[in-house]
Amino acid sequence: MALTRAARSWSQLVLQVLLLLTGLGLLQVVAERTNHRFDLTPGGELSLSPVTQKVLAQVKEPLRLTVFFRRGTREQYAQLLERLRALNRQVGFELYDLDRYPDRARTLGVTQYGRAAIEYAGRRTVAPGLPEEELAGGILRALRGKARRIAFTTGHGERAPGGGAESYGRLAGALAAENYVAEGHSLLDGPVPPETDLVVVAGPKHDFLLPELDELARYLKAGGGVLLFLDPAPLPNLARFLASTGIRLGDDFVVDREKRVLGTDGLAAVVELFKQGNPVSDPSA
To answer: Residue 185's closest CA among 205, 171, 170, 200?
Structure first.
């Protein structure tokens, strides 16, 4: 009886070991045939941004990234490139030490450390390999083939797309990462260039002349878009122009005395929550 019980125990142990090995084998097969990563970091530091994910979703053909790094910095580029390839298997990449392969870099149009040559559908562009948003912008340029153009009006005290502290330099930089080119344009010098995708009026301090507004009206009728950032100021010509399109230009302030920037009077409100699902404020929409 004791021998029988011992044999039964050994049989059960062998069966359990076989079941365990079989389970591990099946798990290995599933792991090799699937491609899922889980980011358990508190802030999702190892995940790609929603914008980058949308850009990669547009990649339908082989995309080649060739990054030239400074010695000792290879790993920081490799980690990002691995995440890109994990999300879209059309992405391939190579990493080269610029000091060891300068001729190859010049062939691809790279002359600086940390630059990536991006090749897609016969097109090539060069962009920073880091940070992620810069590389994603370069990929987007390669996908689209040409940049979209934004014209900032000038001549009325507006903020420029680049320059001093009062300019929209940071905005222009973010737009460049999204494959937009921001340039100044005076409506007195001529009509809005036909390849312009958007006209931005960024905080004018002086009113527009009627011929300038006529140019804006022609641009709108042709299907163009205009974005206005307006501070409370007497702009009668611009107000009448907007009224003709059904928009009433008010002279009000938004004041938030509870959620305001510390030490201010409430005119600098802090927006903590944005409406979900709106593509303007929700990158995942």
So the answer is: 200
Q: What is the pLDDT of residue 281?
A: 62
Shared-domain flag, residues 74 and 57: yes
Same domain, 109 and 192: no
- The torsion region of residue 157 among left (phi > 0), alpha (psi -120 to 50) and beta comes to left
Q: Can you give the residue range of the structural domain that contains 237? A: 148-243
State pTM to two decimals: 0.58
Identify the burial level of 127 via C-beta atoms within 10 angstroms of its C-beta, where 0-12 means exposed, 13-18 middle and 19 or more buried.
Answer: buried
Report DSSP letters for 107-143, one per residue: HTT--STTEEEEEETTEEEEEES-SHHHHHHHHHHHH
Task: Give the model confidence (pLDDT) of 68-119 as tens digits.
Answer: 999 999 999 999 999 999 999 999 999 999 999 999 999 898 999 999 999 9
Q: In what order do the strands lie in the sheet with 180-185?
A: 180-185, 148-153, 196-202, 226-229
3-state class of 66 per DSSP? Answer: strand
Say if residues 47 and 86 touch (Cβ distance below 8 Å). no
As given in the structure block, the two tokens for residue 138 are 């370069």
